[in-house]
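Weekly modeling sync, notes
Attendees: AB, CL, MP (scribe)

Item 1: holo prediction request
CL wants a bound-state model with flavin-adenine dinucleotide before deciding which constructs to order. AB pointed out that an apo prediction alone won't tell us much about the pocket. Agreed to run with the ligand included and paste results into these notes for async review.

Input as submitted:
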Amino acid sequence: MNASLIDLKTERNRRDPNPDQIIIAGAGIAGLTLALALSAKGFPVQIFEKSATLAEAGAGVQLSPNATRILQRLCVLDQLTPSSVEPQAICLADGSSGEMLLSLDVGHVARTRWGSPYIVCHRADLQNALLEQARSQPNIAIQLQSAVTQYKPDADGIIVRVQYHDRIEEHRGALLVGADGVWSNMRTAMSDMERARYTSTIAWRSTIAADQLPKSFTSLLPQGINVVAWVGSNAHLVAYPIRSGEMFNFIAVAPDRQGGRRWDAGAVPETPSQNFIREFNLWHPGIRDIMLAGRPWTSWPLFEQRKCRYRIKDRLVLIGDAAHAMTPYAAQGAAMAIEDAWALASALGENIAAWPSALDAFDKTRSKRIKAVVRRGAMNQLAYHAKGPIAMARNMIMRKRPAEKFIEGLDWLYGYDGQI
Ligand SMILES: Cc1cc2nc3c(=O)[nH]c(=O)nc-3n(C[C@H](O)[C@H](O)[C@H](O)COP(=O)(O)OP(=O)(O)OC[C@H]3O[C@@H](n4cnc5c(N)ncnc54)[C@H](O)[C@@H]3O)c2cc1C
């Protein structure tokens, strides 16, 4: 849209209830969690969400104790509990033989050692629980079909331009938070930051009703309710029950051998390509059968931000994937979005003059944390996708090393309770 058209259609929205409101772009996991955390501190919040609905594509999400602790404080966890599943263990298995290599008892340990449960749920259930809670707060307003397009500083704060249907509105606020995801407009259009980088890897996701799972696959599952990752050369498959155990969620991560993906392609329902199926040809038959049983598979090209940055300008901050989209090998993207939201709300006090230094401290602390989590993800990727002698060494370490040692190595990640 050219500038004159913008000016012609611009109308200052005079209904903004409070020029000190905090404006959030994006009602995803980061944006909704932030709205709840800010609202609990008494800040008025306005969220603009570009989509018309907030339904999430069918897929599951693992929420570790560092995330559920915050959801509990925001009264969201109890709403999620009826539909979520609390696995007894996280298990790692060899993709070709099916042999179980390692089992970490997160069910019991998460509550006793890290002080909050480890759960898995459908993303739509998480989004709905956050949304319901946000809608019940009088100081949170949510406007759908509204894309934040521009931002400019103003003497008393900021003015944000929002495309609502065919008109442009202007809204005044004290701070703009870009929680607009991996393809963040706030990140690219309003700063000098680079776009997310395509990793040439695709996550294929599918869900299958628990009573429709092939026998060859169920025979591979360890006793009980677990998250299981089968690891192998260049690829891995994760499976866990969701929707109170009625459905199974699958994520298969493999290289994109076809190439040519657009940088902003997003998730696409597809029949898995022969290349994708072929990736698992030498795997255990139970896993090959899952590749054929999943209908449809949705392909999620994996992107990452090489440089994490939260604080863009005095009154413009990024959180969640917009600040640091990461690959899913540590299953921490949503957890980091939730941690960001909690940390940002705890950093902001009533005195607006103190915000710049509070935001600097927020940026510094969170960037350090993200660096460590990204490092863990890269380590997991190396271990999961290893082949040849490295894979043999991996299997041996997992068989021999006491589970307690692996649990200890997760304390910094799952036991985290960061305030700024
Ligand atoms: C295959 C896969 C598996 C994963 N598994 C896990 C897991 O098990 N555990 C985990 O913790 N994480 C996981 N993640 C990561 C997690 O899904 C993301 O990190 C998380 O969804 C990021 O949340 P967000 O709120 O930052 O972004 P999003 O959820 O993408 O939300 C951004 C929102 O902003 C809106 N928006 C965009 N532009 C604008 C605009 N200009 N104006 C207004 N609104 C706008 C969008 O419509 C959207 O609603 C996984 C990711 C993948 C790809």
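Recorded for review: The longest strand covers residues 197-209.
Action items: CL to compare against the apo run; MP to circulate these notes.
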